Structures are given as C-alpha cells and as structure tokens.
Amino acid sequence: MDRLTNFVKQIRNKIAFLPTIISIAGLVLAFLMIYLEQINISSYLIDVAPGLVIDDTDTAKTILSTLIGGLFSLTVFSFSMVMVLLNQASSNFSPRVLPGIISDEKHQFVLGQYIATILYNIFILISIEPTENSYQTPGFSVLIGIILTVLCLASFIYFIHHISQAIQVGNILIDIHNRTKSEIENIIKQEKEKSLDFPNIENWEEYEITTSGYFYGILHDNLLKLCKENNTKVVINLFKGQFLLDGTIGLLTEKPIDEKLKEKIMDTLLFNNEELMGQNYIYGFRQISEIGVKAMSTGINDPGTALNTIDYLTSLFLVLMKKWEYEYVSDSDSINWSSTKCPTFSEVLYNVMATYRQYCKHDITVMRKLMHMLKTLTSHVINSNQLKDIEIEINELREDAKLNIENKRDLSKIDTEFISWS
C-alpha cells in the first residue's frame, strides 16, 4: 500500500494526471451514448420532447464539426496560457514554484474537460452511419455534446480568472506557506503520539547506500515490517532532499545484517533523479527564500515582495521550532524502530539568513525586517539552544549591516521596532 500511495503522489503532480482521467470519462460517455442511440433513445425523446432533439443529419454533422474545431482552438489557447504562466513564474519568482502551479487541480480539470468533450464529439460524429437510404441521427447525443461545449465555455471564463490570480506573487506565497505549514503541523501531530526513546547509535553497523539520486522518503510500513521481523532497529542517516552518490554511508543497524536484508531495507528508501518539490517541507522555506532574494535583484527590484516573504518565513519558523530533530517509524505500541535525520531549526535558520544577508545587506528596510523576525522568534523559543542560535544570527545581521550600510542614521535604526509603511 505504501508503494501505491507513493506512486499516486508522484503522478499526482503531473499536468497530465487529471486530464487523462477526465478524457477517459469522456470516451466512456461517448460509447454509452452510442449504445443508447442503438436502442433508439433519440426516437423516444422525439416523442417526449421533440424540441430537444436534432433530427437532421446534415445539421448534426455540421454542429459537431464546428464544436470540435472550436474546442481545439480553445484548448490550444488554454495550454498556451499555462505555458506563459509557467515561464513568467519561473522568470520572476523561482523555477521551484512550477510544480505547485502544474499540480493545481483547477487547471488540470479545465484542460481535461476540453479534451474529454473533444473526444466525445469526435466519436459521436463517427457514429453517424448510413442505414439503408437514410442516416441514423444521434440527436440526443448531439444535444449532450452541445451542453458539454457550453460548460467548456463557462470553464474557460473561470480558467482565465483563476490563471490571472495564480500568477500573483501574493497568492503563490500564500499557497507555499499554507502547504508547508500544513506538512510541518501534520508531522508535529504524529510526534505527539510517539516517544523520543531510541538507543545510542555509537557502535552500530554502517552500510553504504548503493543508489544515486535525491532521497525523498521512506516506505514506513515496509521498513517497520522488516525491522520487527528481524528484530533490529535502523537509522537512516540521510536528509530528505539530499543528493546521494553510490557509496555514501547512510544506513546504520543495531546488529549486523546480511546482504539480502540490506537490499530489502534499501528497497524501502525512495530516490529520484530530480528534486520532488512538495515531498519535503524544507522546500517551502527554500522556495519562499528564493522568491524574496530574486525580488531584490536589479532586474526585478521589488523589496516589498522581499518583506512579504519574511513575514511568511516568520510564521513557518514559529511552527518549525516545535518539531523534533528526528522522525521515527513506530509500531502500534509506540516503540521506535527506525529514525531519520531532519534538518534542525538551527540549520534551516542559518540557510535562510545567509541567503538574505548576502543579497539584501545593502537594504536597511529588509535588514530591519529580518531583525524584527529574529527578535520575534526569541520570544517563542522552546529551548536554550534555539535562543542561542537566534542570538548568533542577530549578531551576524548587525555585523553585515555595519559593513554594508554607510548611513549612520540607518544603522541606528537596525534594532528599532519594524513598522511597515506600505
């Protein structure tokens, strides 16, 4: 079941996922209507509601041909709009926001509806066959085709509205923030049902990872079953999102294991040749940081967006502070059988701050906002280590400000309370 769930998650982010399913539904509907026409449903409806049924063959063929041509144009235009959207998002914000836009269900649904309606109309047009000296006219099926096309036009209007909203940086930031926050909160919720009890791993057996690629997760149920069957605990000494080369020491076991068991454990680790955005909450911090830094580039020059990104990062850091430094695979008795390394609060904070300090150190407004974020975090620390890490970043921020901001009045306000003037 774990493997099936993982497979669904991977294909779910593909732009062709929903369109393929909906297109198949369009084909099924077409064959269903062809069957109903063979049992003369149109003749029955002509007797009941003649105004709803098209009984002229040439008119039916003309209408279907027109609908198919129009929908092809509509589909091409809509796909072109998506490509423009992706290109603009990649250029102005970050290439890493593309998976979130591509996997948007609303975009996929509209494109799928177009293709399904085209296929439906094509097969209904093909089904118009000569019967002796006349043609069998699928009048009711043509009516359904017209209704589906009208729905496509309504979806097109919605599509234009939604796509114009999706490209706005504010909506992109909100989506990344909400998705990342939800991922962290789900992990914290699971942690409440577990314990921190895990043996010391100082003298455990070490094994090499024999696969190259980006590590992005574990098949929890499969790994738990292997650990319990062989009565051994396992440490996955890897970070999610880490790129591994063949030969990296990444697997530790409580007792020696044979090559067969090692391969089975390796099969529970998930690797990919490319980074899978959305599979790891750390990407949320990375995406928001990249949008903020790119906004400060000379080509875009949008410090307001940089300030907004810091607000969302502050919110995410407040949640991240509550998370454990390890993720555990536990059984129903809350016994931890496996642990996986996670980026610590200190590491994530440093990476974010180092990025902003490098590209925003000349802008007093952004520097003050960063200082405000750090001071806000100090009032929500969970332990003394977090407070120490934040104080280090505060000192580094002050040093960079002194070296890069020449105006003494600006420097004097680096520690004052930040009040947005926008």
TrEMBL record:
TM segment ranges: 15-36, 63-86, 107-128, 140-160
Keyword hit for Transmembrane: yes
Keyword field: Membrane, Transmembrane, Transmembrane helix
Name of the featured protein: Uncharacterized membrane protein
Lineage: Bacteria, Pseudomonadati, Bacteroidota, Flavobacteriia, Flavobacteriales
